[in-house]
Request: fold
Amino acid sequence: MLFCMLLMLALFNLSSCFLHYYKTNTTHQIDAETIQRLQSEEKVFILHSGKDIYLLTDVKVIDSTIEGNLSTLPAQYAKYVNPSPKKPNLFKGKNVAVVMCEVHLYTDRNDAKEMHVTLHMNDINRMDIYELDKGATNSSTVLSVIGVTIVSVAAIGIIYFLITCNCPQVYAYHANTSEFTGGLYSGAIYASLERTDYMPLRTIEPTDNQLHIKIGNVAGEEQFINEMRLLKVTHNSNEQVLLDRNGNTLVYENPVAPESATIGMNKNIKENLEMFDGKYYSFTNQSTEDNTSNIILDFKKPKGTSSGKLILKARNSSWSGYMFHQFESLFGNKYASWAKKKDQSDAKKMEQWEVDQTLPLMVYIKVGQQWKYIDYFAMPGNTAWRDMILQIDLADLRNEDHIEICLKTAYLLWDMDYAGMDFSQDQPYSAKYLTADKIERSDSTSQIASLSEHDKVYTHLNGNQYLDMQFEDSTKSSAGQSNSYFLVSSGYYHITREMTGTPQVNELKKFLAKGAFDKYSRQKFDGMLYAINKENKAIKN
Reply:
């Protein structure tokens, strides 16, 4: 929702009278991971087959092939099918929503006449990924009225950064088709923040008794991976399983939606959280007690129940990526040396700082008239939704028929699309780690020895490097049982983007106080809205 609002604001400003340009980012190297990443960004694929041009929908990547359905190219996309890959290309500001989502695939094959087409990656000799040409657009703006549309360009730049804020990227295979799953241990950007992540792999399935996973590095980062193992949990088919942030296996059967979900002045947003449907809450209110944004969930509880499991589907927001980048930029050209010091910092103190800034999603339960802190959900990153679980001791509320849960975080740092509470009794399950047949880095070196245990031996990924992993799973589940798989990985990563400028020491000192990040996020967002509104008034005048 926030992303859409920012995009609409940016689009409104780009529709002014100034000139805007896009660049093609032409490449002749096409791979499955790039196509899947573009799919996750909801890009529109356009196929150039000889002299014919089609809209390519329902795109799927299977091994080294790409397939999809062909249809007539809509008129709005036909305007930008003949760009120059070597110079800026002009477009009208009102068409930015069309241009910025286009990906063009070129093939010399001209046999794509049917409704469905299958192409080998080698059949595609060129790919254009349209993107705003900030340099050319800025130059045009300066030639018009200095500063009037700078905010527009900045807004688009922000949106681009938001959707590319990453960490180690996971791709799980199903029937020889890989699917992007999400990022690992998001926010662990120093050695002192290293942690273990327990990622559910909902779509993975064995092929020829093998489970196939790929882990990729991303631009502007380097990965230090301590452990990479695959856990298989067998359970009753009518139940589901998740691991909490400490690796505890929790089985649940029938979670109930909250009776109410209130924010601000008792505004009920229950409908946003009843099911995973794209209607979510982004923690945009102001807590009356501290510098946080919160939501209060009221669940009906069976009397006599002394335990419950809170289940969420959530992610870090698009705005969070921008905010962390802004925070890092405050260190200017001293960021690299500061990051080295943080690598050596006390791990408990680093975790406490994150908690004091409410960067994780904090969980409280109401006992009497007081809110009791329970635990927190670690940051899952903003590239994909994550299923998360937390077991809550309800012994003090055994005789109550309702419980209230409060979730807190800094302003706009999280999105939450589902919340439920399961009160069922713990059920039996079995769990075992699968044997790794292959953990190979892209330089063809085996990494099994360094990644099979949680120790101080790391695998390093940099640039375009990735891990290709296969685990053996030859045991079939019996009738009435199902298998769930979890990628268990420990590690951290470094931001390698170069920071420039003078460190803003006075600004940085503010973050020694609790709740400073919440204030910082509110100020940045309010500042952006003010600048955009000011620009709109200037354009109207």
About this structure: The first strand starts at residue 20 and ends at 23.
